[in-house]
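Data deposition worksheet. Section B asks for the primary sequence of the deposited chain exactly as it was used as input, without tags or linkers unless they were present during the calculation. Section C holds the resulting structure in token form. Section D is free text for depositor observations; keep each observation to a single sentence. Incomplete worksheets are returned to the depositor.
Section A, Depositor: J.P.
Section B:
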Amino acid sequence: MENTSEPNSSSNDLSSSEFPTEGALLGIDFGTKRLGFAVCDRAQTIASPVENYQRQSEQVDRRALLRLIEDYRIVGLVVGYPVHMSGDESESAMAAREFGNWAAEQSQLPMMFWDERFSSLSADYSLQFSTLSDKKKKAKRDMLAARAILQKFLDAEDRDEKPADLRKGN
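Section C:
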């Protein structure tokens, strides 16, 4: 994949040949109020939910991100990229892109955006038959969505496959 100066592209959004194929990755389900985090094993086969994080100030968010990166020895970031079923960017795609670029800059780690369609649905399905209260289910939803995003990335035959709108070059 060629990086361009298009608004939908980022110098941190790397092709799979440049992205680490070994080592723990941090999956991030972006939200303006909360972030969901998941990590994978060093062999990059299994994603596990880690935590939900209530966003605060940029400085506090940075410390929280760097703490996770250090604690889990993260070598790359996979940030959920919200696109509609048609493949067009959603309203929150620009904010997710800004966040992903910020996280890559703050961490100095390679970053990939990954299609997050169905990640919340997957999280809800995982919680559907849980005996947890609705409040506790909601508290787990974002990290389970992050796990779904990261697992989808890990399972992809072609990790260079970008969310549909990124391929359009709009």
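Section D:
The chain has one domain: 24-168.
The chain has a mean pLDDT of 78.
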